[in-house]
């Protein structure tokens, strides 16, 4: 951070709050409401509390312009409703505005911001520093993830025409990836560039061989990190389907380890998740052996994300996240064949 009085993050948050204030006007039952920022990363997410006698809470998401089209957001919401209808997974559902649409368009300057109001779900994110609880929770998460993938396989015909992102090697680590190039991440030295290029090449070769069979590739959440999970008692709810798209089912698991891939307890989380997943859905030994590949692909993607975004999370992680990736990269090259 420079000493300049101008803070781009603060300016962005001010703009998004103004947009959120306009968006709530699209819902007649929110004539009196309080808006509080919950998170700002790809989008700005707000807690909206009705100040009338109901005091009900809602979640408002203000989408970043250029990230999704209106049709893509509508497809995400269609999937959410399908999950709610055809599975036991607890998700946050969209709410119709005064115009009987789920996606409200708020114009700010020359840009359109797509805003969606969701039902509020109780719960809190898993604690990454509570290893014992996290291991237990990952078994439940494995079951939920398998249920999600079973839902996709069983409803493939109705979901295959969804207009959503693709999350494969090209869009994650290729020449023009969706979240930026890892080569442009923080603290990428010449030595790291050489190391990570070897990792990326091995990932590509293994995934080319792994293939995209319909039993291992389809519509996925693609961002099931701890911040997008809500724990209430023994139940885990899944939120923020903003990045859902087509990719490998195992990539969903890799995203659950986002930002904690280097932690010593990760092998225990893997074992616990596999135990839960296999209660619902078969997973071959070949697929299990590919888990390190998906973890490394996600890790490099996060280096790119940190280097190309400016929010509280990226500022907190900084170049230290890259530093802690070296050991993972060397271990992957050492223990993974081509």
UniProtKB/TrEMBL annotation:
Domain Aminoglycoside phosphotransferase: 42-282
Signal peptide extent: none
Domain of life of the native organism: Bacteria
Species, as recorded: Cytobacillus spartinae
Gene3D superfamilies named among the record's database cross-references: 1.20.1270.170, 3.30.200.70, Transferase(Phosphotransferase) domain 1
A Pfam cross-reference name: APH
Family: Belongs to the pseudomonas-type ThrB family.
Protein name: Phosphotransferase enzyme family protein
Stored InterPro entries: Aminoglycoside_PTrfase, Kinase-like_dom_sf, Pseudomonas-type_ThrB
């Amino acid at each position: 951070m420079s000493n300049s009085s101008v803070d781009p993050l603060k300016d962005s948050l001010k703009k998004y709050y103004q947009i959120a204030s306009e968006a709530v006007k699209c819902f007649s039952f929110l004539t009196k409401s309080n808006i509080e920022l919950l998170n700002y990363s790809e989008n700005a997410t707000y807690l909206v509390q009705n100040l009338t006698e109901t005091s009900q809470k809602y979640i408002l998401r203000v989408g970043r312009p250029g990230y999704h089209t209106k049709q893509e957001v509508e497809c995400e919401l269609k999937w959410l409703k399908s999950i709610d209808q055809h599975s036991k997974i607890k998700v946050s559902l969209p709410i119709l505005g005064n115009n009987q649409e789920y996606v409200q368009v708020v114009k700010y300057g020359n840009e359109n911001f797509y805003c969606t109001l969701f039902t509020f779900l109780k719960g809190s994110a898993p604690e990454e520093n509570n290893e014992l609880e996290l291991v237990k929770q990952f078994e439940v998460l494995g079951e939920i993830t398998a249920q999600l993938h079973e839902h996709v396989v069983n409803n493939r015909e109705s979901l295959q025409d969804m207009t959503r992102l693709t999350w494969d090697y090209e869009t994650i680590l290729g020449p023009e990836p969706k979240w930026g190039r890892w080569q442009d991440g923080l603290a990428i030295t010449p030595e790291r560039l050489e190391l990570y290029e070897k990792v990326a090449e091995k990932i590509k070769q293994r995934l080319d061989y792994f293939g995209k069979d319909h039993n291992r590739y389809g519509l996925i959440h693609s961002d099931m990190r701890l911040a997008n999970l809500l724990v209430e008692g023994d139940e885990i709810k899944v939120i923020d389907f903003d990045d859902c798209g087509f990719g490998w089912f195992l990539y969903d698991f890799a995203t659950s380890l986002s930002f904690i891939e280097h932690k010593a307890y990760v092998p225990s989380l893997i074992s616990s998740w596999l135990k839960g997943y296999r209660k619902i859905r078969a997973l071959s030994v070949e697929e299990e052996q590919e888990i390190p590949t998906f973890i490394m692909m996600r890790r490099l993607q996060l280096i790119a994300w940190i280097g190309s975004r400016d929010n509280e999370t990226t500022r907190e992680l900084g170049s230290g996240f890259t530093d802690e990736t070296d050991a993972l990269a060397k271990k992957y090259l050492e223990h993974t064949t081509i």
